[in-house]
Amino acid sequence: MSGIYIHIPFCKKKCGYCDFYSIRLCKDSQLLDNFFLALNKEIVNKSYLFKNQTVETIYFGGGTPSLVPFHYLENVYKTFADNYHLSNNIECTLEINPEQATDQYFSELKASGFVNRLSTGFQSMDNDCLKFLGRCHTVDDNYRYLDLCKKYGFNNFSVDYIFGYEMLTLKEIERSFKIFTDLKIPHISAYSLGIEQGTSFYLKLRKGEINVIDDDDYVQQFRLVHNLLTSAGYEHYEISNYSLPEKYSRHNTNYWNFVPYLGFGPSAHSYYDNTRSWNIRDVRKYCDMVSRGELSFEQEQLSLRDRFNEYIMLSLRMHRGIDLKHLHNEFSEFENEFYHNIKDKKISRYLVEDNGFVRLNLDGLIISDTIISELFS
Fold first, then answer.
1. Which of 137, 178, 231, 243 pairs with 184 at a CA distance of 20 to 30 A?
2. pLDDT > 70: what percent of the chain?
3. DSSP letter (8 states) at residue 139
4. d(CA 201, CA 82)
């Protein structure tokens, strides 16, 4: 079992909070052609790594994959089909922005037959909030996207929502999530607004043009999102992810369960044979290096300590938590330290031990970064 991630690094404009690698898509058709030539070549060149693997999930992310002409994506999928063993039950996800949701685009999607899951960034159901976040779409675009999903039979899709900023009110959160739950949206990713160095929001923060939300207000928003969704039958299966039964993201769940995956395109990451690698974060340099047959990535071999820390971090993101039997079998030399740490009064009140697993309770999820770092070796 394995997964594939394809990074399409083009956007109409950069959102103020986004620190993923992307560039503005211009009318330079030569760059698009060069990029997809390089991408398909990288896909073929790396196929030996998954010679004995069955690919269970493919994810077209970015950037904005739906911004490029669809035939490019069809050709990429064909390259995978020709060079990798794809599961008969493959989950193939495409990220699509609401403003690109048109009848013509959905018609192409449906006709292609290979995309069976969609993910889109609503981020808000309020136009003032969308403007603050720097989004290019409106609430009407969100509703059009939902109508098109129904019209073309896409019943497995996810929407992203951002909370954790000052102008967002509890009343607006309630209104938005009532819309989501009434419509029974299959999967919802609810992310708190992060302000990362290098983003325009970071510059605004330094200039005093925006503020970080108060801790108490953040906790109120997090709890409200959690309560609204879980009371409506959604499973809170990962810190930021909720789904109706059987509608969780198989692709992202594989990341958290250490299933091997290969990443393609500039800045994409891979994980296999206890090795992590990452492609160069520059589309033009990426194209040049791949076209010349040079390695476009760096890599590191993970030590046992690295793997233990990653296991703690990723497992505690999941509702299931840390499997104590797996911990004993794979990381026995860190067991004593781990059990000593979880008994600490500062930490133990945020943990639940149940049926051989240790997981974070709701209070622990709210401050997960702090708790997880305390359990690192």
1. 137
2. 99
3. H
4. 43
